[in-house]
Amino acid sequence: MAKPLISEILKGLTEVEGKELHKARVAYLQKHNQFPALKAVLRINFDEAVVSDLPKGDPPYRKDDAPAGMEYINLHRGFKRLRHFFNGNSDIIQAKREKLFVDLLESLNQEEAKVLLLAKERNLYDEYKGLTLKVVQDAFPGLIAKPPVKKAAAKKTTPAKKTTKKSKK
Question: What distances in angstroms separate CA 37 from CA 80, 91, 95, 126, one per listed residue?
Fold first, then answer.
């Protein structure tokens, strides 16, 4: 049996149904526990200890138009390359790092490349509803070393209206 693409696993997570949805999603992720690439992508997205060495935003790259399963490489085989792009773990210069990242994106299936770009920007939950920090922490305890801190909502204060008395003449 072929390994499902990471994008397919995450898409499947959004389609999980059940009475206790949280438990069903946790069980679904645990079923895919054997894929280190899935854990790497989730860690990149949710762990504040993982810091990107790449510039913000999507780089310009040529999208691979090969059908799923026919791409040159997938995240299961290419996830070890991710160490070059996060936490300063590589001695390569920035221009080379960015070129390697673009090369990786161009060799991945379009959906896999999209997953990697969303994870880099910490936005996987925008595309894959149901993928939350709580679900990931319950499915893979200890995976997230430094969870994101919830930012307190800034209290909006409106300036008091100044009233001026008009003098009568």
Answer: 8, 23, 25, 20
Q: Rounded to an integer, what distance in angstroms lies between the CA atom of residue 91 and that of residue 84?
A: 8
pLDDT in tens, 25-80: 999 999 999 999 999 999 999 999 999 999 999 999 998 887 776 777 888 888 88
86 has which bridge partners?
52
Q: Kindly report the pTM of this predicted structure.
A: 0.82
Q: d(Cα 74, Cα 113) in Å, to the nearest integer? A: 9
Give Cα 12 distance to the centre of its chain. 16
Q: Which residues pair with 109 in a beta bridge?
A: 64
Judged by phi (left if over 0) then psi (alpha if -120 to 50, else beta), residue 24 lies in alpha
HEC string of 3-62 equals CCCHHHHHHHHHCCCCCCHHHHHHHHHHHCCCCHHHHHHHHHHHCCCCCECCCCCCCCCC
